[in-house]
Each structure stands twice: as structure tokens, then as C-alpha cells.
Input
Amino acid sequence: MVYENEIAITWTLGIGISAIIASYLLISEKTKHWDDKKIAIFSTLIAFSLILLLGSILKVR
Amino acid sequence: MDPFIIATLIVGFYMAWNIGANDVANSMGTSVGSKALTLRKAVIIAGIMEFSGATLFGKPVTETIRKGIVDPTLIGNPKILAIGAFSALLASGFWLTIATWAKLPVSTTHSIVGGMVGFGIATIGFSGVSWYVMFKIVASWIISPIVGAVVAYTIFNLLRKFLLEKVDDLNKVERVFAYFQLLTAAYVAFAHGSNDVANAIGPVATALSVSKGGEVSTKVAIPPWLLVYGGVGIVIGLATWGYRVIDTIGKRVTEITPTRGFSAEFATASVVLANSYIGMPISTTHTLVGSVIGVGFARGIEALDLRVIYRIILSWIATVPIAAFFSIIIFKLIMQII
Output
């Protein structure tokens, strides 16, 4: 099932990229004072938006 | 309703209960171990995700004999096939109950395969078993934990080098990664529900198909109500006995923190996902145990409880032969009664 694999890829990649973004936010001087919940939510939203955007571009092509 | 169908339905539910009880640690073991979640919250989240996975994304078609371990067309008689499916289900359920009682994380797929091997040996003999499939299972004992351990070790070391050694507030990092650990755990539970519900209800679907005059074939349709039935069984299993294997994965192999738990869960999810494309013989349970060992090993061998690991590996090796042995006995008993 194609959609099942799409969920798996989106979820796994999304979490991985969220972790990378969060790591950056935790180190960066500008953002390291942010609340832990804010860092987690912000990085997750950015990561999943990026993947969904990239996925829709690839699908259109 | 035919008493045999009722008995198969009960045994199918028993198997689903076992799958929930033993496999919930795959998704929630590290989260409970790292205290990112309480056991109660883990059970609620796992229950919702497993049930959604099983009912919304459970495969509508399953193999009559899981993993092609025995060619069903060689058996010929549909009733024998149904009795074989019943024996395999009950046998693997027994083994899973023993393993869960002993707090050992074993592969539920390998358990049902073991049951089918026993049925194949009892009906056709050793020549009726696909030894190539058996070879892939043996390979899984070695490949899954090693790949899991290497990937998890690498992820955790990358986190350590680029994050943990550079931040001022380590507790804050752990709190942030507890959220990601939760996201990964929810995904693993969802994927498990959709993939493994067939282990419990696949043989039930085979028995139902045969009772309705279905022919002996390699695939059989699963009615949606049966997916719900299996999903309920899994949820009850994880809610009642799930804590036993969670204790082993989350606390007894090594000490888990959210960053270590995230590394182990994420490594497992990635390896299982990659496997769906590469086709390696991978078991989720074996990969997760390997991943937990990998993150523990990142702190040195003394961070691991080698006695617990030794017992886990022994249980993996014992799974197929014990389930096969139980299955042969159950099959022979039923045939004598009939």
C-alpha cells in the first residue's frame, strides 16, 4: 500500500529532522533560552511542514 | 456457529492478547524506562495507536500460512489446513505467554512461524517446510540486533558529540527529546498494529474461509470486523500484561534516558522502514533490543546487564523450536480426538 509507506517515511523523516532542528535550537545563542516545549513544537512543525511541502512538490512532478 | 470456528476465534483473541502483551515494549519500553511517560500513559497511547493501526491500516488480505513457511497446496485438504492454523495459533500463543511471564521480548512473527513449522512437519514431514524461510529467520537473530545496535550507537554518539557536549542545560535537552521519543513510540505502535494484527487473525481468517467452503490457496481475505476483533485483543493484552516486557526493555538491559531512548526507538523505526525497501530479514523486537544494547554500549560494556541479554538471546533461539513442538502436539491431539 503506497499511502502506508508514505506515512512511514513522513513520520520517520519528520522526527529525524525535528531532532536535528531542535538540536540546533538548543545550541544557538538566540534560541537556547526558549522553553523546552516551544523548542519541541517549533522544530516538529518546521520539519513536518518541510517534508509535506517537499513530498507534494515531488508528487506533482 | 461451528464449534471449531468458535474455538479458533477464542484462540485468535488469545494470540492477539499475547501479541499486545509481549510487543508493546517495542514501542513503549524505552519511553517508560526513561520516564518520558508513566506506564499508565504509555498503555493509553499504545492502545489508541495499536488499535488505529490494526483497524485502519491492517492488511485486508493475509497469507494462509504466514511467511510461506509451508506450501498450503501441498496439504490439499482444507480442513487439515484449518486445524493446522488453529494448532499453530494456540502453540505460538502458549510460547508467548511463557515468554511474557518470564519478561522476555520475543518475536511474535517467529513464534507463529514456529507454530506453522510444527504443523508442516506433522502433516508433510521435514520436506514440507521451506528451509529458505527458516534460514532467513536464523539470519534475523544475527542481522536485526547488530544493525539496530550499530544505527542506535551511531545516532546516540552523534547526539552526544554535536549536542550533549555543547549545551549548558542537559536536563532541558532530555526534556525536549522526551517529546520526540513519544512521537517515535506512537509511530512504532501504529506500525505494529497495522503489520502484526494479521499474526493473530490471519489463521482465524483461514479457518473462516475454509468453513465457508473456501479452497486451499496462498492468500485469504480478512473481514474488517476481524481486524477490529484482533485490535481489541492487542489492546487488552498490552493493558494487562504489557508492563512485564516493558520492564525488561526499559530498565533491565541498561539505564535509559530520553536521548538514549530516542536514539534506540528512532534507530528501530528507521531500520524497519529501510527493511521494507531492502528486504532484509529483520524482526522489530530483535532490532529494538539491539538498539537498546547499542545505546547502552555507548557508555561501555559495564553499562549493560549481560545476564539479561544472554537470556533474551536464548529465548530468540528457542522461539521457533518450542512453538513448533507445541504445535505438533496440539495438532496430533486434535487429529486423534477427531
Observations:
- Chain A has a mean pLDDT of 89.
- Helices of chain A lie at 2-27, 36-60.
